[in-house]
Amino acid sequence: MTTMKNIPLILMGCGGVGQQLLQHIVSCRSFHAKMGVHLRVVGICDSKSMVVSSDVLTRELNDNLISQVCRVKSNRSSLSTLTAFGECQVFMDSELRGKFLDIASLLSKVTGLAFVDCSASSETVGVLAQVVDLGCCIVLANKKPLTSTMEDYDKLVSHPRRIRHESTVGAGLPVIASLNRMILSGDPVHRIVGSLSGTLGYVMSEVEDGKPLSQVVKAAKSLGYTEPDPRDDLSGMDVARKALILARLLGRRINMGSIKIESLYPEEMGPNAMSVKDFLSTGLPLLDKDIGERVRKASLYGNVLRYVCMIEGSRVEVGIQELPKDSPLGRLRGSDNVLEIYSRCYGEQPLVIQGAGAGNDTTAAGVLADILDIQDLFP
Amino acid sequence: MTTMKNIPLILMGCGGVGQQLLQHIVSCRSFHAKMGVHLRVVGICDSKSMVVSSDVLTRELNDNLISQVCRVKSNRSSLSTLTAFGECQVFMDSELRGKFLDIASLLSKVTGLAFVDCSASSETVGVLAQVVDLGCCIVLANKKPLTSTMEDYDKLVSHPRRIRHESTVGAGLPVIASLNRMILSGDPVHRIVGSLSGTLGYVMSEVEDGKPLSQVVKAAKSLGYTEPDPRDDLSGMDVARKALILARLLGRRINMGSIKIESLYPEEMGPNAMSVKDFLSTGLPLLDKDIGERVRKASLYGNVLRYVCMIEGSRVEVGIQELPKDSPLGRLRGSDNVLEIYSRCYGEQPLVIQGAGAGNDTTAAGVLADILDIQDLFP
Predict the structure, then answer these.
(1) What residues of A are in contact with residue B375 (Cβ under 8 Å)?
(2) In this complex, do B362 and A376 lie within 8 Å of one another by their Cβ atoms?
(3) What is the largest CA-CA distance in chain A?
(4) pLDDT > 50? residue A14
(5) Distance (Å, rounded) from C-alpha B240 to C-alpha B317?
(6) What percentage of chain B carries pLDDT values higher than 90?
(7) Domains of chain B
(8) For A102, A154, A230, B261, which has the most beta carbons within 10 A of its beta carbon?
(9) Out of A73, A144, A155, A242, which one is annotated catalytic?
(10) Rounded to whole angstroms, how far apart are CA atoms A373 and A371?
(11) Residues of chain B neighbouring A184 (CB-CB closer than 8 A)
(12) What is the pLDDT, as a whole number, of residue A2?
């Protein structure tokens, strides 16, 4: 190994995925050193504040301080308490954006800088577009910047080698990396069909067994498989975001509005119309009969229902589809994700990628692989 | 897009995969230009001779000359006839190695150079090790250099960012890229099980349907699924090479001799003991009963036979295994490859990658994606 490559990075968002990423970075230290790479964490921020190393050009937040960040955030405390634990500065609220840009313009000229967005915020897109413009790399687990307007999207991907976002679709599953390889080699992808929500995958395979939808959703919620408001999953919006990211990767210039989205509940049971409690106790049971009927009807033809994402030509849809029980999607059980990709090389039989498509560990592992993947852009 | 990135490359081996790669390079020209990349082919060689651009620093073999190379090679003619078609030089036999090293030491200092090995030769490993040492990148579809001694292997991978070899396992399937991502992110892979031979996949799924092995192999041969001597497939050596490549990627320091290989024919039917014709007409039918018996016995337990590669701990084996009919491997039909990878992140349910694992088109696409993947190493 020649010299040690130094990758400075700023982490945005230290919820579950961000904390897990920090832990992975620390636990991989000696292994990455053997490969000649050092990940130098110069800043960590949540929605309100940022802790920054005392000198971003030469110093880093050391591993002890990183552990303290994880402790503070898992206790839901503020990063501002961290100044007691080492050489660092803390910036708050209105100072944040200016500070980001200061650090970005300084480091991008000298060593490069990676902005890692593990938040779930729609607010980061502006600063990400600006730091890309300054020459920084961006690595995203956050889907929202990539599902903003086409104008924003074009800015984020304006230097295609400086952006990675594996963990925006299927958590750590090598979906984006594999599609990028196909695109680079001129193998045109003409069709993608997939089950991209662990939650809806679980729900659909349970109703297949004859259980009422309302019961399955309540069970999924108590198992921690759903968002606090299960309608965030049942609306299909999360799957639609992933579909939009895949479609744009394939070159489609479309917005969320162009995607046909099937919600599993009617508008009159939406968050504006009833509480979560009412939805679960009185709204949801009204849907049991209809979905049960659809399941039975499908089974008459040897088919099952799956909540799928389908991209073909200009058509991008997410919703329930009837599929052969004996297809990769039809066989899917539990919360695994699966993606079938059809192209010139994979014309009759698709390229299939399947595995755990959720979880902080695998999502953070995907982000970490992305960071290592851009190492050649650093001196 | 800023400036055009220029990747000079030398192609070794212009059989089916090499010719297909050249065609892909030419047909992707305008698309790659849009991405700001130009693949500059400075040399193409077969086992006997090499055609080189008139000035490797500034000139390339133009697309017309590249088409002529494909024409000449598909007619099984010599590259030496090419001097008539444009500005190029041809070097023969004993001059080759010296010329490789001259070009490598010249270009590695100025622009970098990628050596692309699409041959099936065990002779290229020496020159590949030398050009790596000179600072060149290597991209391999050829398995043999990576299955040579550990000493050779260590030399080839001594600069891990400068080697890519996706198409050595599962053709263009994103197997190596996905494993590399897992390794980089510190997700330890503890088990790989796969079906990595399209030929043996076809054979095993046909005998499962009750057909005699001898009949299935003859049909496979007439369909062009096997090597000219089907024993090259039936011996398991090709699968063992892929297993060794995967095991070494995971850090196992082993040689071919450490792999337990089950051959589908006994030694007394080997190439030294009988001709291909005798093997097919009199040897092979003697094996029908035994394999038929094993198929029937497995089916009693709901199992099927698959020729698999299994890597777990220090154990690396290739051979027939009894597997549940209802597992990803058990369900495999025809000539698709499938790989199940178990790690910390994919602990209970594996990461599964499945699709066409053979064919010049997909193999060459994998090589081309590898070449584009190292673009950040070029100025």
Answers:
(1) 161
(2) no
(3) 67
(4) yes
(5) 8
(6) 85
(7) 5-172+361-377 (3.40.50.720), 189-356 (3.30.360.10)
(8) A230
(9) A242
(10) 5
(11) 35, 368-369, 372-373
(12) 54
The predicted pLDDT at position A1 comes to 46
Residue A378: list chain B partners with CB under 8 A: none
Structure tokens at B91: 């070097």
CA B130 to chain centroid, in Å, comes to 21
CA-to-CA distance for B178 and B363, rounded, in angstroms? Answer: 16
A–B CB contacts, 8 A cutoff, strictly below: 136
Neighbours of B59 (CB within 10 A): 15
CA distance B371 to B354: 23
What are the distances in angstroms from CA A210 to CA A195, A205, A214, A217, A291? Answer: 20, 9, 12, 13, 10
User: Integer distance in angstroms from the first to the last C-alpha of chain A?
Assistant: 14
- CA nearest to B350 within chain A: A355
Pairing, β B163-164 against β A351-356: unpaired
Residues B174, A181: C-beta atoms closer than 8 Å: yes
H runs (alpha helix) in B36-95 = 63-74
- Enumerate the residues of chain A whose CB falls inside 8 A of the CB of residue B362: 187, 345-346
B275 Cα to chain A: minimum distance (Å): 36
Residue B375 to residue A28, Cβ atoms within 8 A: no
Instruction: Give CA separation, A175 vs A116, A238, A249, B175, in Å.
Output: 19, 16, 11, 12
List residues of B with catalytic annotation: 242
Chain B positions touching A356 (Cβ under 8 A) are 345-346, 349, 351
Helix (H) / strand (E) containing A106 = helix A96-110
If you compute the radius of gyration of chain A from its CA atoms, what whole number of angstroms results?
22
Pairing assessment for the beta strands A315-324 and A303-312 based on DSSP bridges: antiparallel
The answer to whether residue B146 scores a pLDDT higher than 70 is yes
pLDDT band for position B368 (50/70/90)? very high
Cβ–Cβ of B345/A356 closer than 8 Å? Answer: yes
Contact flag B185-A346 (C-beta cutoff 8 Å): no
- Tell if the CB–CB gap between A373 and B336 is shorter than 8 Å: no
Closest approach of chain B CAs to the CA of A18, in angstroms?
14
Q: What is the mean pLDDT of residues A281-285?
A: 95
Short-list A30, A91, A355, A29, CA closest to B328? A355
Subunit contact B184:A369, Cβ cutoff 8 A: yes
**Which residue is listed with tokens 């307007």?**
A149
Chain B interface mutation, best of A30, A139, A345, highest count of B Cβ atoms under 10 Å: A345
Q: Token pair of A229, please?
A: 């408001």
Strand B189-195 to B303-312 pairing = antiparallel
**The pLDDT of residue B227 is above 50:** yes
Distance separating alpha carbons of residues B197 and B205, to the nearest angstrom? 12
Distance from CA of A346 to the nearest CA of B (A): 7
Of A173, A331, A345, the CB nearest to B172: A345
Token pair 């993606």: residue: A339
Give SS3 for A2. Answer: coil
Q: Are A42 and A66 in contact (CB under 8 A)?
A: no
Residues in chain A: 379
CB–CB contact A185 B24 (8 Å) = yes
What are the residues facing A10 on neighbouring strands? A43, A115
- Distance between B178 CA and the closest CA of chain A, angstroms: 6
Question: What is the C-alpha separation between A140 and B283, in angstroms, rounded?
Answer: 59
Q: Which residues of B touch A133 (CB under 8 A)?
A: none
Q: Does the model's ipTM exceed the 0.90 cut?
A: yes
The per-residue pLDDT for range B152-182, each reduced to its tens digit, is: 999 999 999 999 999 999 999 999 999 999 9
Task: Enumerate the β-bridge partners of residue B90.
Answer: B51
Q: What distance in Å separates the CA atoms of residue B183 and residue A250, rounded to the nearest whole number?
A: 27
CA-to-CA distance for B232 and B215, rounded, in angstroms?
A: 17
Angle at B161 between CA A338 and CA A145, to 5 degrees: 45
How many Å apart are CA B136 and CA B340, to the nearest integer?
Answer: 33
